[in-house]
């Protein structure tokens, strides 16, 4: 026998048993986004490599060590998208969606990062992202956070996530802060590890994110970003905090929150959970007012976020809070001359009469026992049984597969009976 071929490490199949939960999570977030009037955009999965290195930043984990980059047959360097913001901005500029306009967009799909796989962290993962262009004020930042809070409510996970918020100020404020941080790290060289030593000049803010306890211990004395914030950013942040308070959304300000991608300014935020172990960030985002210009467009303010669908699915699954509908509601079982086609016709009739009902016809023959076994296997709630007598009389046997009761009813009455399953 030939050797079987395995999927790539960190890239998973979504199996039939898992897809109902995935659909539930995807549909819930899509419905919430559409309740705010946002439009979907679909970008390619592969882009030119320099789009990502320019947008995300050369000295970031994503660009330095996590991108799936390869040479196209004509020698171009291409990369599987590690995130959606860069491609969304590229698309917006290229298609004239951003200049002088306001856009509220969303996307959903696979992203790729060569990270070490573990629970909640994969090499192919899925994000749902939202990006808004052309709006400056804290009102839109607040709307995005309110939208995410609504998603958690609809998914039943509100009690298990918390919001952390920070302002990282203008580019200029960050440049001043950077200088102060470099001076601080220069005075503490002896504590720094190789990674921190390398980063302290190229991206000192990232050293704040270190996992090294020795470095963490000195960070309490490091200069604080809030001391370097420009007045406009300060006011913007105060405006956002006020809006969130009046919307009843709890948050904590985390001064260390800087995010792992370089394009942010002003507002940054993350929704974090303790129920997933190490990979606790379910959603992250913020403002990136400089990126459109940096990628060649006319300057335009922008803000957005993305959430990891695997992490949301895991949460909903582990917390066991959401009832997931199986793929099949009613299973049509037939036996006898001419009953198979009568069953197919009954199913077609029901699909039309009861929108959203999922009806499966038994195919492949076999006795009742075999057919009922199939009905159980696919998770159907009821079986609709047609024998020669039922076909002749225009009736059907309606059997509740969970409770076991069954009754014979006129086919004309079945619609009323079955509506409740949707
Ligand atoms: P990010 O923080 O890199 O931000 O990713 C957003 C979310 O994607 C994370 O919070 C996490 O839930 C999920 N995620 C990231 N990497 C993995 C992985 N390897 N496996 C599973 N899930 C993962 C961004 O990507 C920005 N583009 C967000 C944004 C949009 N900012 C503004 N607009």
What this model shows, in words?
With about 425 residues, the chain is an alpha+beta fold. It folds into 2 domains: about 20-170 and about 230-320, 2-Layer Sandwich (BirA Bifunctional Protein, domain 2), CATH 3.30.930; about 330-420, 3-Layer(aba) Sandwich (Rossmann fold), CATH 3.40.50. It has 16 helices and 16 strands. It has helices at about 20-35, 50-55, 60-65, 85-95, 140-155, 170-185, 195-200, 205, 215-220, 230-245, 290-295, 310-320, 340-355, 370-375, 390-395, 415-420, and strands at about 40, 45-50, 70, 75-80, 105-110, 125-135, 160-165, 250-255, 265-275, 280-285, 300-310, 330-335, 360, 380-385, 395-400, 405-410. The strands form 3 sheets. The protein has an 8-stranded mixed β-sheet with strand order 1-5-6-11-10-9-7-8. A 5-stranded mixed β-sheet has the order 13-12-14-15-16, sandwiched between helices. It is elongated, with a radius of gyration of 27 Å. The chain starts with 18 loop residues before the first helix and ends with a helix. The model has no long low-confidence stretch (mean pLDDT about 95). Bound molecules: histidyl-adenosine monophosphate. Histidyl-adenosine monophosphate binds near residues 125, 285 and 286.
